[in-house]
Specification:
The protein is mainly beta. The protein has a domain of 88 residues: Electron Transport, Fmn-binding Protein, Chain A (Pnp Oxidase, Chain A). Helices cover 14% and strands 46% of the residues. The structure holds flavin mononucleotide. Flavin mononucleotide binds next to strand 3 and strand 5.
Length: 158
Amino acid sequence: MPIDKNELRRVMGHFATGVSIITTVSKDGQLFGLTANALTSVSLVPPLLLICVDKSAECYPHFEETKLFTVNVLSADQEDLSRRFATKGENKFHGVSYRIGANGAPILNNVLAYMECRIVATYEGGDHTIYLGEVEEASSLEGQPLLFYRGGYRSIAP
Ligand SMILES: Cc1cc2nc3c(=O)[nH]c(=O)nc-3n(C[C@H](O)[C@H](O)[C@H](O)COP(=O)(O)O)c2cc1C
């Protein structure tokens, strides 16, 4: 029998991760974003990373439309942004400071790092879709990361 999904989430929660907001844009120019920690560096040459997006996410259809996304890596003081982009609803960007990057997706202000990507392959992943992104632009700042561990937000001990 397959493992219960809540039990799998609990056990996987022991794998500590950073937290990102993945942004994209629809064909008609609407901005979308979701909080995500299913993010993996894949290859340096060529520069590739992957993300996994829930097929039931409201933003999901728009990744296919424009075939681009930007990974915004959150800093320790951006837990409020993480909560906002993990909550379904319109106008996630209302009151949020950002600029539009070279690929057309938003780069949030004061993120620890960002990677602008073009989708080069798509893979079936159960209730998620795996997007392989080629990194076209990337940059980072000094600072502390926001962490996620066992279902809660954490930071690196000083
Ligand atoms: C720490 C954290 C990590 C998450 N990671 C992912 C992820 O990697 N992929 C995903 O599809 N949803 C992930 N989620 C859930 C989405 O952020 C949430 O369901 C979001 O509302 C989906 O976007 P939507 O509002 O467009 O439906 C995560 C949530 C949290 C709090």
